[in-house]
Amino acid sequence: MMKQLLKNLVEITAHREHSRLALSVISALHELTQVRQVRVLEIFPMRDELFVQEKIQLKDGQLSTIAEHTQDDPKEPLHHYPAIQACMRDHQTEHAEITAEGEHILWLPVWLHGKINTFLEIRNRQAFDDATMEMVHGLFQIYCNYKSLLDYSERDALTGLFNRKTFDDQFSRHAFAIAPHESHSVDSDERRHVVDTKAHWLAVVDIDHFKQVNDQFGHLYGDEVLILLANILRASFRSHDRIFRFGGEEFVILLRSTTLNDARKIFDRFRQHVQEYDFPQVGKVTVSLGFVGISQETPVVILGHADQALYHAKKNGRNRICYYDELVTSGVLSPEISTNDIVEFF
Fold it and tell me: Angle at the Cα of 180 (from 16 to 196), degrees rounded to 5?
């Protein structure tokens, strides 16, 4: 047991990403306690309501992320989870219950900075004995401590989204691994195939006229707009997509494994969500977005292409989305990035 425990601790503390950390923790819980099921749940606000979304689950020894066992990436209202509501309302550090079928459930909230945004749900057919509870509590505390350290280094302090440093670390390391195809000119038949093929996409988002928000209402309301926009971003994309704040009013989205048509719909739905939202005091706010397929180009070039599409959206009316390849095909943009384009983006 001690040897296995040390092995799991080494595995847990080796990671620098939240998803891998969570995977290691729930794997350790299963290996060391043989519990039947562990789920990692995320809580996020949207339009003054809280939602719960599953991130990872381990069930009967099978480990999966939500992208692997569902097509829809469901978000459920918080009231579907009375145990979570009880923990949040009463500031509980855990909550236990037994279902009508006799299954034992242990809820463990991750408290960070006085708030809960993550829960572990542990299910077992038998009651949790003292030895199991001691192991669960120990591993969970290690998870909370290490998650806090990762949050501090990976997250933007204002919005809670991933920061620019995290993007640089992750995208530079994984861009070539997730690139679905090379960038090259294609004929009409190939282009139809590309439209129907799942790929990965990068989008750059900018809040329209954000300087006017700060000048007219002050930086406190400007910060509130950024926080609320971050909430809309979380609610508009799936748990296995990635959202980053680059600084100021600029955000980057990594949208994984979807077709061009669906990517366009997802990005435009997000734009509409922002347009329809009533920001306190400020009122209506809009965003512009430029996106591009992730190819075998360098991260600098991919970012530059998305930024060119964003710049075109802002020059041509704002509150719109633009796809880089379409702009190049139509002759609106040149496929080459100038030095000035790169300097402007960074």
Answer: 130
